[in-house]
Design brief:
The protein has two domains: 6-100, Orthogonal Bundle (Fumarate Reductase Iron-sulfur Protein, Chain B, domain 2); 105-152, no CATH class. The chain contains ten helices and no strands. The protein has helices spanning 6-13, 29-32, 35-39, 45-54, 57-61, 75-79, 86-100, 105-117, 125-133, 144-152. Helix 4 packs across helix 7 (86-100) and helix 8 (105-117) crosses helix 10. The longest helix is centred in the middle third of the chain and has 15 residues, at 86-100. The chain binds iron/sulfur cluster (SF4) (2 copies). One iron/sulfur cluster (SF4) binds at residues 24-30, 45-46, 49, 79-80, 82, 84, 86.
Length: 156
């Protein structure tokens, strides 16, 4: 019989959207229209919800966790008859990896770029040149004061 880690579930419940995993009755409707599941044999939102229900912290919060393959497309949000919103449970899990410092290095690099430049990717002269070639304007300045204030906001 599967052992449930209720302590992990309690921590997940405390994250925004994390508590929704409890309503999953494993129908699989979220899988049918999930682009990540179509292209990755290891990705399955129904299975991720099951792992959350069982409280399987190790695979879910590992640095190479499958949760990072979610595209945030929200198809599962629309399909779920239980209003579980798998995408939001997955986001809650991602936030847990950040707290546990097990998120992938690429994510840390992205967070650092946002803190320093307000953008997820640092702009270079090459980007400006390519934009010019495509007839696009240069990227404008980013309101760093507002972004810093947002980053200091604690939602829990
Ligand atoms: S948000 Fe993620 S889990 Fe949901 S359908 Fe899109 S890729 Fe799949
Ligand atoms: S559609 Fe909703 S209830 Fe069904 S498996 Fe997916 S998350 Fe669970």
């Amino acid at each position: 019989m599967a052992k449930i880690d209720f302590n992990f579930r309690k921590k997940l419940n405390a994250m925004i959207g994390g508590e929704l995993h409890s309503y999953c009755f494993q129908c699989g409707a979220c899988v049918g229209d999930c682009p990540a599941a179509r292209y990755s044999p290891r990705f399955n939102p129904r299975r991720i919800m099951l792992q959350a229900i069982l409280g399987q912290a190790d695979p879910l919060l590992a640095e190479d966790s499958v949760i990072w393959e979610c595209t945030n497309c929200y198809n599962c949000y629309e399909r779920c008859p239980q209003d579980v919103r798998p995408v939001e449970v997955i986001m809650a899990l991602k936030n847990m990896t950040h707290k546990a410092r097990t998120n992938p290095q690429q994510v840390n690099d992205m967070v650092k770029a946002v803190q320093e430049t307000g953008r997820t990717v640092v702009l270079t002269s090459v980007v400006d040149r390519r934009r010019g070639e495509m007839g696009l304007e240069k990227m404008g300045d980013v309101p760093m004061d507002e972004i810093r204030k947002l980053m200091q906001t604690r939602f829990h």
